[in-house]
Specification:
Its main location: cytoplasm. By secondary structure, the protein is an all-alpha fold. The protein has helices at 2-5, 7-11, 25-41, 45-62, 71-79, 85-106, 110-123, 127-143, 147-151, 157-169, 173-189, 198-209, 216-231, 237-247.
Length: 248
């Protein structure tokens, strides 16, 4: 797994050890092909994680300049690989990282990504795929600077919440806690996205917080969501009043 062993040399874009720009075009092409092939065929989760980390960081360095044009079509193909849940999850996690690192590069693909996230949130039967889709969706929403672009993702919010409630109903509290942590990130970073459906969202969080059958950590995360949303500098005074009314 030479591609994984060379990770720090392929991804340290701000360091003298970043070898990629110094390689020949043929070698660069071989590395990229090897990484994508490894992602497709690797079955060990720990190794897969290193591969998609490497792909994400290398892509963040070269994709804005058109240095990996085949990557996005490959990832879209992976996300639709219904019989390979690990590959779906990996592709979604790469989308999540790219939205975090170079979100502006993904914005031209907004409509396509909306469809991808909707399909994975709505149709996947695997909790890890839905969590990865939730991660990618939240990171992408936060990278959007145009309010009209964010509005196009409003229809995904019920599905995002269903990722949480589905995990709870399936007694998968570890997965539910992951979902809560991601939603807390959204509440702190882009609370305006939640505004139109805040009654439903906060109501669900309060139900979780009051559910004595759930783990203490799960209930505390639900409370943290409400506090984070109410305390966000980007939420309006009207939002604060509405949250207070729901909590009353």
């Amino acid at each position: 797994m030479s591609a994984v062993l060379l990770r720090k040399h392929l991804t340290s874009a701000t360091d003298d050890s970043f070898l990629y720009p110094k390689l020949t075009e043929s070698t660069r092409s071989t590395i990229k092909i090897s990484l994508l092939s490894s992602l497709q065929h690797e079955t060990a989760k720990s190794v897969t994680r290193k591969i998609y980390d490497t792909i994400s960081e290398l892509a963040a360095a070269v994709l804005p300049d058109g240095g990996w044009q085949e990557l996005l079509p490959f990832m879209l193909q992976c996300v639709t690989a219904q019989n390979n849940h690990n590959l779906q999850e990996s592709a979604l996690l790469i989308f999540a990282r790219l939205a975090q690192y170079i979100g502006e590069t993904l914005i031209p693909h907004l409509a396509t990504l909306h469809g991808v996230f909707l399909n994975c949130l709505n149709n996947s039967t695997r909790g890890e795929v839905r969590i990865a889709a939730l991660n990618a969706t939240i990171n992408f929403i936060q990278c959007l600077t145009n309010n009209s672009d964010r509005e196009k993702f409003q229809d995904l919010l019920p599905l995002m919440m269903r990722t949480l409630t589905g995990a709870l109903n399936g007694n998968q509290e570890a997965t539910a806690q992951e979902a809560l942590e991601l939603l807390i990130e959204l509440a702190g970073g882009e609370p305006r996205f939640l505004r139109k459906q805040i009654v439903e969202v906060v109501g669900s969080m309060l139900q979780i917080a009051e559910a004595g059958s759930l783990e203490e950590g799960t209930r505390h995360l639900a409370i943290e969501f409400v506090i984070t949303f109410g305390g966000s500098k980007r939420s309006s005074s009207g939002d604060d009043e509405e949250v207070a009314a729901i909590c009353a």
